[in-house]
Amino acid sequence: MNRRTKIVVLGSALLLSATAASAATASDDAPRQQEAAALTGTAKLYRSAGDDITFSFDAHLAAKDTADPTKATGTFEFSHYLNGAGARAKAEVDCLLTGGKVAVVSGVITDSDLPGAEGKRVGVTVHDVGRGDRLGYSWASTGNPVETKELPKCVSSAPFEKVRKGTGDFTVVPWRPDF
Questions:
Q1: Torsion of CA 14, 17, 21, 26, to 10 degrees
Q2: Partners of 92 in the beta sheet?
Q3: How far is residue 61's CA from residue 165's CA, in Å, rounded to a whole number?
Q4: Which of 23, 40, 80, 154 could disulfide-pair with 95, CB 3.0 to 4.6 Å?
Q5: Do residues 41 and 29 touch, judged by C-beta distance below 8 A?
Q6: Chain centre distance of CA 99
Q7: Which DSSP symbol is given to 143?
Q8: What is the largest CA-CA distance in the chain?
Q9: Sign of the Cα pseudo-torsion (101, 130, 171, 108, in order)
């Protein structure tokens, strides 16, 4: 082999090596399998009396669990204050169902300053419509989560509350089970 041939062979080997490395990196950076469903975001509810009511969600159902919405994971938090009085709570997700731009998430309260709330299951419904998101919650008819008796997983009310303008950034990833 002459010098020129050696350079061409060496250059080809380097090019093949770089292409293989690039392909390996590309596969490492390949998009992960999409979630089966998700609900994320934060918003404040609109109340004419000035109540400060906030809901935040970070709930996910992995693609491998698409057949079982009770395998959803994550947390959601909510708080309600008026004139310095009120309470907050954090719940561990135990179910997530979505259809189109509507999500129902439930979870068990793990941390709260509302006496009697810890250990109670609560559910929240979100309708993700962009600037006019809406929200509902399982204790709508009872007044607070403590008064709700043994709520099943993935149960809530219709999304009857309006989100305060400029605060709704909910994102719902629709669930598409194999039926």
A1: 90
A2: 75, 108
A3: 29
A4: 154
A5: no
A6: 14
A7: S
A8: 89
A9: negative
Written as one letter, the residue type at 38 is A
DSSP secondary structure code for residue 69 in this structure: G
Task: Name the token pair of 33.
Answer: 């399998």
* Tokens at 136, concatenated: 């509902």
pLDDT per residue rounded down to tens, the chain (179 residues): 544 433 333 333 333 333 344 444 444 444 445 899 999 999 999 898 999 999 999 999 999 999 999 999 999 999 999 999 999 999 999 999 999 999 999 999 999 999 999 999 999 999 998 878 999 999 998 888 999 888 999 999 999 999 998 887 899 999 888 77
User: Would you say the C-alpha torsion 68, 78, 160, 152 has a positive or negative sign?
Assistant: positive
Closest by CA to 151, choosing from 100, 87, 104, 112, is: 104
In the block, residue with structure tokens 């708080």: 79
Q: How many residues does the chain have?
A: 179
